[in-house]
Task: inverse folding
């Protein structure tokens, strides 16, 4: 009987963790579905709002088109579902945090929670930057670059894929401060090492800007300069996350405890 209790005791914590994980995943699914049901009634209006930066610079009497038969129906609902997930990110991160926080040390909780909040805000800012700053420049350039005799009529599904890719790219690029802080926090690099590599970071930022934006200096600079500034911000904040050495923990209390343990060990040896 005692043997059965011993065997089952190790499984109970693992099963309880699985049950908690399942419950939190279900909460996430239900929350996303609830947001989606609220947005589904306005799917067409949401898509029109998303397409506004393109429609503004399309030639006169030109419209977007739907190549696939079901695109006019499914594409707006696809956007509504993705927007539901996008809106639910804070709730999703909260569920993730509530699941892992009990297993972390107090110092780790104090450091990870601000990083989660900051990474979410930076991703949202990157998406907003792409929509309000980059898209007008991109679509204005692309509409003007169309050869004579070519009617600019973009498919709604392909436009959505393009916009989502741009949102994701800019959202990730704006996570530069978080990447910088994590590199320093894990001890892979030091702030001094990153400062020495600043010229390479600047060049890399302009290369990324050239790849993600149209081939003109203005739009490339509009992405490269914020990335550079975000790197400098992450470099500044990373100094607060430098791992402490063993000497940093040699406080008077710790020294007394260590001396007491050494004394006990000497008595045992005698």
Result:
């Amino acid at each position: 009987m005692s043997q059965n209790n011993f065997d089952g005791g190790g499984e109970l914590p693992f099963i309880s963790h699985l049950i908690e994980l399942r419950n939190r995943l279900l909460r996430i699914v239900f929350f996303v579905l609830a947001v989606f049901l609220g947005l589904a009634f306005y799917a067409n209006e949401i898509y029109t709002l998303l397409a506004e930066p393109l429609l503004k610079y399309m030639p006169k009497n030109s419209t977007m088109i739907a190549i696939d038969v079901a695109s006019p129906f499914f594409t707006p609902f696809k956007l509504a579902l993705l927007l539901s997930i996008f809106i639910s990110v804070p709730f999703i991160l909260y569920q993730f945090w509530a699941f892992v926080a009990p297993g972390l040390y107090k110092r780790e909780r104090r450091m990870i929670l601000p990083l989660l909040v900051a990474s979410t805000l930076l991703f949202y800012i990157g998406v907003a930057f792409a929509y309000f700053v980059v898209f007008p420049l991109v679509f204005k350039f692309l509409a003007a670059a169309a050869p004579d005799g070519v009617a600019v009529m973009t498919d709604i599904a392909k436009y959505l894929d393009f916009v989502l890719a741009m949102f994701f790219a800019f959202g990730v690029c704006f996570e530069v401060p978080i990447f910088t802080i994590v590199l320093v926090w894990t001890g892979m690099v030091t702030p001094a090492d990153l400062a020495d590599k600043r010229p390479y970071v600047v060049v890399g930022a302009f290369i990324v800007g050239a790849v993600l934006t149209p081939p003109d200096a203005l739009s490339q600079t509009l992405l490269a300069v914020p990335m550079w500034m975000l790197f400098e911000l992450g470099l500044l904040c990373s100094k607060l996350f430098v791992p402490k050495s063993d000497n940093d923990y040699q406080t008077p209390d710790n020294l007394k405890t260590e001396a007491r343990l050494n004394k006990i060990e000497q008595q045992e040896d005698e």
